[in-house]
Amino acid sequence: MNPNDLNKKEPLLVSIVTPMYNSAKFIETTITSVINQTYKNWELIIVDDCSTDKSLCIVKQFAEKDARIRMIEQVNNQGAGVARNVGIEHTKGELVAFLDADDYWDARKLEIQVNLICENHWKGSFSWYKNVDEEGNGNTSFVVPKKINYNRLRFNNYILTSSLVVRRELIKDIRFPLMRKRQDWIFFLELLKKTDYLHCVDKQLVFYRKSSNSLSSNKFKLIKANFDVISDYFYGGNKIKGLVHFMVFLVYYFHNKLFLLRKVIN
Fold first, then answer.
1. Strand partners, 34
2. Please, are residues 204 and 126 in contact by the beta-carbon 8 Å criterion?
3. Is 24 inside a domain boundary?
4. 135 lies in which domain range?
5. Is the predicted pLDDT of residue 21 greater than 90, yes or no?
6. How many domains does the chain have?
7. Is residue 187 part of a domain?
8. What is the 3-state secondary structure (H, E, C) of the chain?
9. How far apart (Å, rounded) are the C-alpha atoms in residues 14 and 168?
């Protein structure tokens, strides 16, 4: 795609990819946050990963009323990364965004990010985000660096998947790896092999829901997953080199806890 195409007057189509598995409690809020976007030229592709609750029924009700919403049903449960890849294959837009089935957006998210990508000829952008619980309550916001390159991302994953919007050309040959843990981090690293930076919008545009049973809620599993990714992805399974890198990773992690977390007054 020619970069100049991003300056055309006709609004760009944004394809939004949402993996879903047993998300009946949250998916209505997620979809509604897309419908309420001030930027209207979007398509929402929801890939169901064999849900056994009422998620499918809820999505079908929305799809019947809004042709911009499409649902794809997986035959086998394979995890969010695979579901996102399936969604990517069905996208039609010049820009691709991601939104997990339990997160939701500020109404101006797409408008703000699309405008900045077009005006600055960025390859992609992400944003600040707010942590909320299952009821949508919370006052902790992640304030992340203005731009991220590959070397910086090697030592900490600053990017929330639900905040990312990228040009289609950037993800042309990139897909989420076939693993259930931390595949988002590897995906972002692969993106940054193809562009110098991904740029952050310094506004809180995403509400990140941390469910009590999520992987991120189990700190030990999260630490182990990060160590495994570092050892395997960067060093081909060399645990000694991975451990050295991981120690630096922990320094960045605790630095972020101290300086990149901001309390927001409700």
1. none
2. no
3. yes
4. 10-263
5. yes
6. 1
7. yes
8. CCHHHHHCCCCCCEEEEEEECCCCCCHHHHHHHHHCCCCCCEEEEEEECCCCCCHHHHHHHHHHHCCCEEEEECCCCCCHHHHHHHHHHCCCCCEEEECCCCCEECCCHHHHHHHHHHHHCCCEEEEEEEEECCCCCCCEEECCCCEECHHHHCCCCCCCHHHCEEEHHHHCCCCCCCCCCCHHHHHHHHHCCCCCCEEEEEEEEEEEECCCCCHHHCHHHHHHHHHHHHHHHHHCCCHHHHHHHHHHHHHHHHHHHHHCEEECCC
9. 10
Taking only the tens place, the pLDDT of each residue in 154-189 is 999 999 999 999 999 999 999 999 876 788 999 999
Q: What angle do CA 114, 152, 79 make, to 5 degrees?
A: 65
Model's pTM, two decimal places?
0.90
pLDDT tens-digit readout, 255-265: 776 666 665 43
Cβ(145)–Cβ(138) below 8 Å: no
Q: Is position 122 within any domain?
A: yes
One-letter amino acid at 204 equals Q
Q: What are the pLDDT digits (tens) for 46-65?
A: 999 999 999 999 999 999 99
The domain that contains 244 carries what CATH number? 3.90.550.10
For residue 61, tell me if it sits in a domain: yes
